[in-house]
Amino acid sequence: MKQIAFGDRQMITAYVLAKVDAGKDAEVLKGTREISGVKQATATYGVYDLHIEISFDTMEELDKFIFDKIRMIPGIKETVTLVASRGT
Question: What gap in Å lies between CA 64 and CA 29, rounded to an integer?
Fold first, then answer.
């Protein structure tokens, strides 16, 4: 996993790709950006409508974010989570 040092802490970085209901793009993007842990959220063209970069201290926090926050946003139909393995 990509680990980013902040003092004595190591952060887990992941990327979430999401499919969004038609017409909900702007609303979902705005709501996503307001969630704690989101470093960046961008609307995209193609198979996925939204790209979200996130960072957490633990896998438990990452799980909670995916299952209790992102997947609960009205308009999000599907997500794929990519956990970074190492940085450049």
Answer: 19
